[in-house]
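Record type: ASSEMBLY
Status: queued
Input:
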Amino acid sequence: MTDSGRDIDSDEMVLTFSLDGETFAIPVSHVNEIIDPLPVTRAPCADPFAPGLVNVRGAIAPFVDLRQRLGMPPAVLGETSRVLVLDLMVGGESTKVAMLADDVDDITDTRMADLEAVPELGVRWPVHLIRGVAKKNDTLVIVLDVEPAFAPTSHK
Amino acid sequence: MNPAAQSFVQEARDILEDLEGVLLELEADPTNPKRVDAVFRALHTLKGSGAMFGFVTLSAFTHHFENAYDRIREGKATVTPRLIELSLASSDHLERMLDAGPDEGGKPVQDPATAELVKQIEMLETAGPAAPAAAPKAERYTIVFKPDAAALKNGMRPDLILAELGELGEATVVALTDAVPGLRDLDPAICHIAWQVELETIAGREAIDDVFIFASDWDIEIRRIEETEDAAKAAPAAEAAAPAEAPARPEAPKAQAAPKDEAPKAQKTDSVRVQSHRLDELMDQLGELVIAQARLNRIADELGDAGLGSTAEEIERLVTGLRDTTLSIRMLPVELVFGKFRRVVRDLSTELGKTVTLETRGGETEVDKNVIDSLTEPLVHIIRNSIDHGIESPEARRASGKADQARVVLHARQSGGEVLISISDDGAGLDAEAIRTRGIERGLIAADADLPEDQLFGLIFEPGFSTAKTLSSVSGRGVGMDAVRRVIEDLRGSVDVRSQKGAGTEVTLRLPLTLAIIDGLLVKVGGAPFVLPLSSVEECVELPPADDVRTSGRSILRIRNELVPFLSLDRLFGFERADSEDRRVVVTSVEGRRMGLVVDEVIGQYQTVIKPLSVYHHGIEGLAGSTILGDGSVALILDAAAIVRRAVSAQRVAA
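Status: finished
Output:
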């Protein structure tokens, strides 16, 4: 999905999940399902952001590692680990993508108008991946900009 | 458009396609009567069925076209280059008429393009070398016909038949209404009327039979009135004779028509037209079946029940058979694409003032339909490039001691799991220096880069890359070769170029044999399952431990007195080495080059549905796709050819 639907005044339902102790969010319209962790087949010589593939109910989906892109240490599977299956447009093709989250929290309403810009120096993540920051019960929720956040690593 | 007309359009397109091929053959062999007959037959069918399905303009136009060939058949004219040229133009014109659809109201439409072509064809007739024979004497016929009950439902048009008879000469038509029932019993969908036509014509009996060519199962009676008979007596005599001759007569037109119809009819019973999306659906379902079957096998193995095991085996055998049959349905000879290029080459060489002959080899090589469908465009680009840029003008060719006539060769062949299609010309070859200069200008390569020629030639596939100094109408804009590469890569294939300055250029397309299901060899590398297409596997041999641990450099194995280089897939993939005592070498053969791939374990033969890789992974060299195994895990399918090529080029860089 392109972000043409980025209507400034609208409310959007987002799914919040945690990665390395931080709370992230993506619009629920991109979330297809949430499943238990499943075996990942690693692809040789692959983009480190998309190190493998998984079988999601008979469909083969690339498995992406958002932690790698955000410069976080590799995930350790725990009790609460879940796989998010996302429907995304990647490189102009509608693609089913699987990613691992440490925990899935909640679905909340976020007013896109209230998003605050990320201060350049405040985070070590590439800021272009982030649409803005919202506050929810005193926690910072980092809303991802889906398209750049899940784009294949470009080689050029 | 009604379904009958649609199927006519479909059929007509096939006829025109064949016609073009025959015309080009006729050009090469102008005195062959068989080819003239073939052209005539094709036109005749078009004319007849065109009129039947409401393509009146098309039919009227074809009539003139057909006449020209009739004259040749009768020896009144000969095949000239001008005739071929006009015929090709006419065939294109017919194609446009088909696009336009049937004529409204059944009246021929007059348009300037049609009129011009007709004029030119007629001019050809008057300019014919042989003097026209003396006009044949007019003959008189009595024709009585009654359409069969289903004729109107089948879309037959008695009015068109009457009109066609009228075109043959002076006709008097009487409708025989004796059989028309009372209004209460009248079924309006059935033709109750018969017609009697008195016809005076110079066209001969055969022309009359031809009018009824698509109505041969009607009740038809054609009787020639003897000249000695008095015209006044003729009509009653014919009527009187009708009942007596009825049983024998209807056979006559059939017998006459039979030789003409034989070929198309035989084809009709042999083949079925199927929309290709139905084949795609069949293929998808078969893919699911193959995966489900793998699951069944695994469960049968786990349970160890003999009855279940043998049933699973039987199902496996059936699925394999079903798969092979389904795949073979989808396989079409490359000739289907090659055939189109004779025309392209002919037109282009005329336009550019070069003489070029096209030679095709291996047209019988079969490729999946989807591959065939995507091939035309890339091949057109490559051939255009060859003729426009590659092949020199006749003067330049003479100056460099070549024959005036240049050659473009299309060659298809199967090699392992791939189909190779090469397009070679004996032109000037690529100018490596010009490409290097242009590449540096465009910032594609560093100014001091010392690239080997094949990598340099690869630059011609970059978007917008052209070394042509002048643009021509056909090429030189640098659009094209990048499109070629994109299409071929979408088909999981690859393109490469070889060229020798002054001697010519060869572009080779490598394409997978099929897009959907393959037989594979399941192996493990670094703990992960991989599938190697069985078509590129020659054998599996043990890896002697001494060879395994050798760290001296390139590894070579001696297999039955032949030296085979091998490489470790885990090292190539950057995987950690798995602890395995079962390491094997899978010997692959790609274009006659043998190369061993070391794997941790060979699990066995496996039927695999190829699922395409996502955007994240499809750029990885050496991977052809992915598949789901019986246990639900995902395995990657390796492209042995790409792995070997990569190894070869890596070695070349190192050397």
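Annotation: Residues 58 and 94 of chain B are 7 Å apart (CA to CA).
Annotation: Confidence is low (pLDDT under 50) at residues 128-134, 228-268, 470-478 of chain B.
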